[in-house]
Automatic annotation (TrEMBL):
Domain Ig-like: 21-125, 134-223, 232-315, 320-400, 405-504
Membrane topology type: Single-pass type I membrane protein
Signal peptide residue numbers: 1-20
Annotated protein name in UniProt: KIRREL protein
Species for this entry: Branchiostoma lanceolatum (Common lancelet)
Record-linked Pfam families: C2-set_2, I-set, Ig_2, Ig_3, V-set
InterPro entries listed in its UniProt record: CD80_C2-set, Cell_adhesion_signaling, Ig-like_dom, Ig-like_dom_sf, Ig-like_fold, Ig_I-set, Ig_sub, Ig_sub2
Amino acid sequence: MDALPRAIAWILLLWTGVLSPVTVESAFYQSRPQSTAVLQGETIVLSCAFSGLMKDEAVIWEGPPNYRIMSNGRSVSPAFNRHRVVGKPSRGEFNLEIQDVQREDTGGYRCSTLSVEAASDAVLTVVVPMEGPPAITGAETSQEAGSELYLRCKSRGGYPEPRLAWYNGTRLLRTAKSSEEDNSERRVIEMFIPRLTKWDNGANLSCVADQGFVKIVKPRTTSRILRVNYPPTISVPSPSIHVKEGQSANLTCYVDSNPRADITWTKMGGGLPIGSIQRDKTLQIPRVSKLDSGVYKCEAENGLSPTAVGAVTLEVFYPPKIDSSMDAKVTVLFNQDDFSLKCQADGNPKPHIRWRRKDTALRWENPLRFHRIRYDVEGIYQCIATNDGVQYATRDVEIDVVGQPDIRGGQSVVTTNSGGTARLYCDIVADPVPEKAKWMWRNNQGAETILLPTNNGIMINEHTTEEGTTSIVTVQEVREEDGGVYICKATNMFGTDQKEIRLNVKGSRSSLVAIISVSVVVIVLAAAALVGVLFAKRRGWIFRNTPQANKVRTPSRPMPPLPKHARKPGHGTNDSGVEDLELQEMDGTLKPRPPSRVGKDWAAIGLTYGGLAHTNTLPPYSTVERHRPEGEDGGVYTAIREETSTTDTVMVHVEPPPPPPSKDLKGRWKGGRGQAGVRGSTADHEEENVLNEIQADSV
């Protein structure tokens, strides 16, 4: 039925174009039909215009279904009651208007004439919106971390059929699969997640259905927010907090969990500070003290294992404080060795401790150490504890030194002119302080006398100084007899200390006499030694180039014992004072000991030396042995052979000159100075020298 009208139309076109005797210019498209899309129910106009058409030349529209002829010229087939040809004929317009477009209007359209080659077909798409957004199934409730997830998205209606896609937020997920249900216009897309993590919590998974014509119909979207439950984790923004004592401190632990976790704060090794406030993730301490230092633990729990734990260390800075148990006063003994005093202080940062002697610039490290305690150590010492070089604390400790007296150094030799005034000083430091210093005088002969303020010409004064006591002895109108050693002695409950001061008197005549006497003694000793050597050679006692030259023969004559006042330890004397040897070993020789002077007269002559011609020709012992330097005559008797005579030792006694008369010496010394061993007048010394010269001549 449709083929007949089409054939008639084409016959008419051929007759009009071929049989017509009129010749015209060739026609062409002025406007070609274009492919387009339109929403169902709207009106669409497909344009078509020619230029140069002959009058009464037919223009045909063909369209769906199967390119049926819809119009000829401006006449439209009755079957297409929603179609009509519109436009101005004068312009050659043959536009096709379709009203209330339906889905069956979708297809290809063609506008043509016999004189012009047909243009390309125009496709009309009628868009039918979806019935609603796509539907998602799965993950309707919360999921636990570690489980798997299956989601399914299904579209409902719409033409063209929508394309489905999964998005995580704005990011396209390319792991999804799409399919079409059988016997249905619905499309389905699925998504599978094998293992959920806490990072999937709150993910916005969207299923988007897009028909491809966004200007006509918008894409439809359905979203699903994932809820993933996971155990708590804790992060500590400030693991260590430093704060000064008295300030506030905030300790914070951030907790990540789903569902929300409960947070509990504790202090390791103790309870929370008094007045502390727990506010969820924060522990607030309004006013910290040094006792609040320590490690604080935050614990989070939401019913899912494991429980999360975090730690925050609180360090409180506070100024140094010195231990109050340290004694304010310490008493030590004089001359004590290795004394130390330690100062202990607490503070944060750890304080640096030093010692300082108060009101001085002297400083020592801690502990304060003295190798030996002296009285000048006594004083107030200050322990100084500092931290950061700004804050510091001090504590005073007094060191009190007690012990026996200590007589300080000073002049040990004082020289003055005869007739002048001599002052001898004795500086005493002691605790407790002695009542008074005791002065003694030892003359040049070794006799000692106690000095009293009542002695004529002697003054003893004492006065207190900052360091102790000073005792002064003043000797007025000094004489030669006043020379000697002055002893200052101080005693308290701990012991005694003394100091010797020698007083030398210049301008004395007796000093010259003493020098001359010593010279005479030296000459006499030398002469006696020479005579002995010559005598030994004559008797054959000296051996040369023989082994006997190095031997010492034992004398047959008994030797006198060494006087007790001249013994040396280990040389012939035991503890009881009894002599056990008759010879004294000195420098490799055997020297006869001189007789004891105990009980002898002050001018008694000494022993007889065996082997000499005349024993009574020796100078007196008082001038030989007393003034002989030690060891001077030791080698004289080395090779002297003693006589084998059995005669006893002969003691020769020479009448001494009368002793010098004692003098009052103004009554200066108690008991008189003559009792102390003071030599006689100048005449007495001259008589003794004459006697020595006579004996030397006889030798």
